[in-house]
Write a structure and sequence with these properties.
By secondary structure, this protein is mostly beta strands. Helices cover 0% and strands 46% of the residues. It is built from no helices and 17 strands. It has strands at residues 2-6, 12-17, 28-30, 35-46, 50-53, 58-65, 69-72, 81-86, 99-102, 113-116, 121-124, 130-134, 136-139, 142-143, 147-149, 159-161, 165-169. The strands form three sheets. Strands 1, 2, 4, 6, 8, 10, 13 and 14 form an eight-stranded mixed sheet that branches. Strands 3-5-7-9-11-16 form a six-stranded parallel sheet, with no helix packed on it. Strand 13 (136-139) and strand 14 (142-143) form a beta hairpin. It is globular and about 40 Å long.
Length: 179
């Protein structure tokens, strides 16, 4: 039980590295409302295992998944995340590509950026349809057009799985009116 709290304006980096213990062993970890992340925290998840949160997290900052599966259940949210990065890095093991699994359209703020890398997966969990809005979505650093993306029309290089969900990219930018 408890919290990881950073009260500084400078982001603290929290690294969760879950490595495989044996080829035939799979372990998942769930916060089960015992831990909260509070304050300005840049969160990094790597390792082939699954990490699940089932509560609203109060942290702001960036959420990065480079390997394994980060699950945010229907009761979980990370509204303070300014950017969600789901992209393998040079050390990502074969077959352990990063997966972000969400179960509601209330997981992230509509002001967030979703940055995906080739090989990333976004999994939509559940049977009740939902749409998660984000302000911006990139794939390998390139912006995708504002639209609604599902498993049927996921951007090239990434995979969306699950029939229930979609990502709505709102876009936005500067509107200049000259009179």
């Amino acid at each position: 039980k408890g919290s990881v709290k950073n009260s500084s304006e400078t982001p603290a980096a929290l690294h969760v590295n879950q490595s495989l213990r044996a080829a035939d062993v799979s372990t998942s970890y769930t916060s089960t409302n015992k831990c909260n992340l509070v304050g300005n925290i840049d969160f990094f998840k790597r390792g082939a295992e699954e990490l699940a949160f089932d509560r609203a997290l109060a942290a702001t900052g960036t959420v990065t998944v480079t390997e394994g599966r980060l699950v945010l259940t229907k009761d979980a949210s990370w509204k303070g995340a300014s950017e969600i990065v789901v992209a393998p890095d040079a050390e990502t093991a074969d077959g352990c590509g990063p997966v972000l699994e969400i179960a509601s359209g209330r997981t992230f703020s509509g002001k967030a950026t979703l940055s995906l890398g080739t090989g990333a997966t976004v999994a939509f969990h559940g049977t009740t349809p939902f749409v998660q809005s984000v302000k911006r979505m990139t794939v390998d650093g390139r912006d995708v057009e504002p639209s609604v993306y599902t498993k049927a029309n996921a951007p090239a290089g990434v995979t969306f799985v699950g029939a229930a969900g979609a990502i709505r990219v709102r876009g936005g930018g500067l509107v200049l009116v000259v009179r």
